[in-house]
Amino acid sequence: MNTVLTSFRDTWGKLSKPMQIGAIILVLGVFAFLMLITLFSNVDYDVLFSNLQPEDAAAVVSALQERNIPYRLAENGTAVLVPADQVLETRISLASAGLPALKSSTVRASGKQKLTGSCATNGRCRAN
């Protein structure tokens, strides 16, 4: 480890000031880029269906997997959440396929308030 640090110091010392500044800017730029990706990659999830029976939840999840739609399970597996911008289209698509059995589920209107973690209050979750 000591030889690596010594080698780095020697190499760093051989660089001109503009090259050192450029290297620092490059490292900071890469770090800022990674931070922005992390910041903007969070997706808001909204309730697609809730109060599902286990059989209906399994059928809905299977249909979402077939359509390559990301999902999360909440409320002990009785609620299925999808990205908020895909809720209405997905709900219509699944309803046209007969999913879920209407007696088994509840459709919640989207709320304005966002929660992190629990979806029980208003149907909105933030996936981190």
Explain how this protein is built.
The protein is 47% helix and 15% strand. The protein has helices at 2-14, 17-40, 54-66, 87-96; strands at 43-49, 72-74, 79-83, 124-127. It has 4 helices and 4 strands. It has a domain at 44-127: Alpha-Beta Plaits. Strands 2-3-1-4 form a 4-stranded antiparallel sheet. By secondary structure, the protein is an alpha+beta fold.
SSE arrangement:
Blueprint: H1 2-14, H2 17-40, E1 43-49, H3 54-66, E2 72-74, E3 79-83, H4 87-96, E4 124-127
Antiparallel strand pairs: 1-3, 1-4, 2-3
> Which architecture of the domain at 44-127 per CATH?
2-Layer Sandwich
Distance between the termini: 36 Å
Indicate the mean pLDDT: 82
What is the molecular shape? Answer: rod-shaped
> What is the rounded Rg?
24 Å
CATH topology of the domain at 44-127: Alpha-Beta Plaits
Give a short account of the largest sheet.
4 strands, antiparallel
As laid out across the biggest beta sheet, the strand order is: 2-3-1-4
Question: What is the SS-derived class?
Answer: alpha+beta
The CATH superfamily of the domain at 44-127 bears the name: Hypothetical protein rpa1041
Number of separate helices: 4
- What is the highest CATH level, the class of the domain at 44-127? Alpha Beta
